[in-house]
Amino acid sequence: MRQLRSGLLLPTALLFICLTVFAARGLTIKLGSLAPSGSPWDTGLKKIAAEWKKISNGKVTVKIYPGGIAGDESDMIRKMRIGQLDAAGLTGVGLCRIYPPILALQAPLTVRNDDELNHALDKMKPSFEKGLADKGFTIVAWNFVGWVHFFGKKPIAGPNDLRKQKLFIWSGDPDGVQRWKEMGFHPVPLASTDLMTSLQSGMVEAFSATPLSAASYQWFGLAPNMSDLKWAPLIGGIVISNKSMQRIPQSLRLPLLQAGSRISSGFQDDIVQADQKAIDIMKEHGLKIIHVSEEGVAKWREVVDKGIADSFDKSIDKDTYETIQRHLKAFRTE
């Protein structure tokens, strides 16, 4: 009996010690982000950090490392896996590195507008969140990063215009790079943090990004021609590693997650407005908007249809893509 009591007392004592240490010192969540300091995305992260501190009575503090200080998205994911970071604000590119089926929602020319994107994402959230959880991550909040456009040193109205320029592609997707090559393009896989120097050196001549990103990082200054074609939606999410989430007392986890979701839900309108403001500012500094005609859109669709078909079960999960298409078809006929 004495040995049994000793065995029970040890884990109980350790639990008491852990709770006492947490109460005394609190917990710091280290969060990495590519968002420049002061940008709308960074402002949103700071709002969530402030709310977490308030809800936890100062017990949970979020320390934000903005502007790529913690590396690009692949670096941040790796650091979360080994415990150097607890959380990160990722674009859909980073989320796909964790759970590849998410890429299907961001396939070019698949989703047409904000309403379709919101509907499809709402339908896919349960499976996406389970997939991320199985890979070791919890979603704190989903958000909208913006609509991706092509920017080039020379105008880009159709596929052949882009084929004449060296195109930046996020590193870490060799299958995607191969698809671009097979269709006659010249992809250059790089970390996003290397894009500016690559534009300056001529290693890259074109890229795809949201207007706000192009303005915030000043990339547009070296590629001042923006296609008005909405190439694809870029979603994003704040994720925390499951290991770091377990360090937060259970009584706080749901309120903190609810706060993140609540704050993020009002973020989309801010991004839409910020994107338009970014376009206006860039136009004042030399940006030219290149119109894509109906004929140009049709040519792009030919490229996209072939690229997606060739990417099934390589870069793009076919079942996920077809599920999203069914949701969009039902939504369009409502």
Draw up the topology in text.
Layout (H helix, E strand, L loop, with lengths): L1 H24 L1 E7 L6 H16 L4 E6 L7 H10 L4 E5 H7 L15 H21 L2 E16 L6 H5 L2 E5 L3 H9 L3 E5 L4 H7 L4 E4 L1 H6 L8 E3 L4 E10 H6 L2 H16 L1 H18 L3 E3 L3 H18 L6 H15 L2
Parallel strand pairs: 1-2, 1-3, 5-6, 8-10
Antiparallel strand pairs: 3-9, 4-7, 4-8, 4-9
Helix pairs in contact: 2-11, 5-14
Order of helices and strands: HEHEHEHHEHEHEHEHEEHHHEHH
CATH classification class? Alpha Beta
The CATH superfamily bears the name Bacterial extracellular solute-binding protein, family 7
Provide the gyration radius in Å: 22 Å
Number of helical stretches of at least 4 residues: 14
Which CATH-level-2 architecture? Answer: 3-Layer(aba) Sandwich
Number of E-type strands: 10
* Principal-axes shape call: globular
How is the CATH topology named? D-Maltodextrin-Binding Protein, domain 2
Provide mean pLDDT, rounded.
91
- Could you tell me how far the N terminus lies from the C terminus, measured between alpha carbons in angstroms? 68 Å
Features:
334 residues; alpha/beta; D-Maltodextrin-Binding Protein, domain 2; 8-stranded mixed beta sheet
Structure description:
- This protein is of the alpha/beta class and 334 residues long.
- It has 14 helices and ten strands.
- Strands 1, 2, 3, 4, 7, 8, 9 and 10 form an eight-stranded mixed sheet that branches. It has a two-stranded parallel ribbon with strand order 5-6.
- Helix 2 runs antiparallel to helix 11.
- The radius of gyration is 22 Å and the shape is globular.
- The N terminus is likely disordered.
